[in-house]
Design a protein that fits this description.
The complex is a heterodimer of chains A (359) and B (176). In chain A, 40% of the residues lie in helices and 19% in strands. Chain A is α/β, with parallel strands linked by helices and 359 residues long. Chain B is globular. Classes of the chains: A alpha/beta (359), B alpha/beta (176).
Chain lengths: 359, 176
């Protein structure tokens, strides 16, 4: 494990560790966690490094406590983070809704495992709906980033902090057990974290030189709450117009367009490469932001396709956003495994051959 | 060209470490690689394994269905993975840890009495590196210079004194 990483050098790290290192480099000052497989290395890295690097690591007594500590730290304007895996994120959802309702920037990591309930500890993507559509009660969105390599675990963690600050919104990294546990070479870039002026709202010390700031999500007067929610949705509209991110692989002449994110996209990429070698015109569209969903780029990538194949480590959740993005103008097929099972490239390839026979 | 390697054994035999050495070697040579440990229920049964993929191109899934190479350090691991090895693949196993092994006719089999060799040469706990040495010798994957550079990166500085022992074990494996 790298103790003090140097910019530009390559390190071999687990996704969980690389994300933690990137967060510290991005200026994360407070980490509140509670152990759960398969994200524990992330908290372990923070436990070792934060005290040495001017930060705070605190293992809370529960997920609820951790997320509310995050709310408190974010209220004071510092960069703060919590991490967990699926069942723990469900427990944190209340606090995330409160943060969204208080316009607080903070970063939340979900290294997904199989569900529902305690589920399994193997890689899964069955929390897509939760992350993108129902992260808690109330009308709100949070930014959702979906890395698919150890390098992206690091890069997107840094970006998540910047974007959370920029839009005063919680941001989530939606990873999975595969990305958290595997090691790949990773390098950390010398980037200056974007500085956002928080002096207008942060509830920190001011020696009575100004009126105090209040962090709050309770509005008993309904029209007032409606106004605030509507203002927030204007910000979401800006986010949706500016922050869609995605990657296209061999999409230009693709007749079958595979759509997948995170670990599923890695498996799909291998399958697409194998399909191309067999003369099947397949391509891969990989959303990097799940909220905002990259619908504009997907519409463009799908323009020449005859059929789409959505692939996920779930029973099919993102597929609804895929269908919406293209207004159901083309058939969208699905292939997924769930419960912690990761499909082989061969399984996806088989599906591609089947679809190729039908077009 | 992508090479996929599964290394498996009892917890404590250093199988994850041997995989890490391979991973660091690949990184030292500027290759793409993935290293994925077993962390699920299977490791509760006392066996540990890791999957290492090495390539010049981007690597898709880090999960290996059919490895090119299997390194097995005990009977249960051998049993678990031997059927999955690609036809024409290579299998390195610690023959001092298993008896009555049913070999695959369509794979190159390398029986190395690694645990016995380690004990004989007082390289306790070095069976993993002996097997790794054999693998490196047969496949020509990485030179000793690369292995030594890799070891310097993956062994904590306070345990650097163990690097020569590891290199001795690799050399022993190469000659076995």
């Amino acid at each position: 494990m790298a103790e003090n990483t140097k910019s530009g050098e390559k390190y071999l790290m687990k996704g969980n560790e690389a994300l933690a290192e990137a967060a510290i480099r991005a200026g994360c000052k407070c980490f509140f966690g509670y152990p759960i497989t398969p994200q524990t290395e992330l908290a372990a890295y923070m436990a070792k490094q934060m005290p040495k690097r001017g930060g705070v690591f605190l293992q809370a007594e529960s997920e609820l406590a951790a997320v509310n500590m995050l709310l408190g730290a974010a209220s004071s304007g510092v960069r703060a983070m919590t991490s967990s895996s699926s069942p723990g994120i469900s427990l944190k959802s209340e606090g995330i809704s409160y943060m969204a309702g208080s316009d607080l920037p903070a970063v939340i990591i979900n290294v997904q495992r199989g569900g529902p309930g305690l589920g399994s500890i193997q890689p899964s993507q069955s929390d897509y709906f939760q992350a993108t559509h129902a992260m808690g009660h109330g009308d709100f969105n949070i930014l959702v980033f979906a890395p698919n390599s150890v390098q992206e675990m690091a890069d997107l963690a840094a970006l998540a902090f910047d974007k959370a600050d920029e839009y005063r919104i919680p941001a989530m990294i939606l990873a999975d057990g595969l990305l958290g546990q595997m090691m790949e070479p990773v390098s950390f870039h010398e980037i200056e974290p974007a500085h956002t002026d928080k002096s207008g709202w942060a509830a920190n010390g001011h020696k009575n030189k100004r009126a105090h700031h209040i962090i709050n999500s309770l509005y008993l007067d309904a029209p007032t709450l409606e106004k605030i929610v509507r203002e927030r949705y204007e910000r979401y509209a800006i986010i949706e117009s500016r922050e869609q991110r995605s990657e296209s692989y061999m999409c230009e002449d693709a007749e079958i367009l595979v759509v997948g994110y995170g670990a599923a996209a890695r498996v799909a990429k291998s399958a697409v490469a194998q399909a191309r070698a067999e003369g099947i015109k397949a391509g891969l569209f990989r959303p990097i932001t799940l909220y905002p969903f990259p619908k504009d780029a997907l519409r463009e990538a799908a323009a020449g396709a005859k059929v789409l194949l959505d692939t996920e480590l779930s029973m099919g959740q993102m597929i609804e956003d895929v269908k919406l993005a293209i207004n159901c103008s083309k058939p969208v097929e699905f292939y997924g495994r769930t419960g912690g099972v990761v499909p082989t490239p061969g399984e996806i390839l088989e599906k591609l051959r089947e679809l190729n026979g039908g077009i | 060209m992508e090479i996929s390697i599964i290394l498996a054994g009892f917890g404590g035999q250093g199988i994850l470490f041997a995989g890490k050495v391979l991973a660091y070697c690949a990184m030292e040579e500027g290759k793409k690689l993935t290293w994925l440990p077993s962390y699920g229920p299977e490791m509760r049964g006392g066996t540990a394994n890791c999957s290492v993929c090495i390539s010049d191109e981007d690597i898709g899934s880090p999960i290996i269905q059919n490895p090119d190479i299997l390194v097995a350090m005990n009977g249960p691991s051998y049993e678990k993975f031997i059927g999955a090895v690609k036809s024409g693949g290579k299998v390195f196993y610690d023959s001092s840890m298993m008896s009555g092994v049913e070999e695959r006719g369509d794979a190159d089999m390398y029986a190395v009495p690694a645990s016995d060799l380690a004990e004989k040469h007082e390289l306790y706990g070095g069976a993993n590196m002996i097997l790794l040495g054999k693998l490196l010798e047969i496949t020509g994957l990485f030179s000793d210079e690369t292995v030594e550079r890799a070891l310097k990166k993956c062994v904590a500085p306070k345990r650097a004194r163990l690097i020569p022992y590891n290199m001795q074990a690799v050399a022993l494996g190469r000659k076995s």
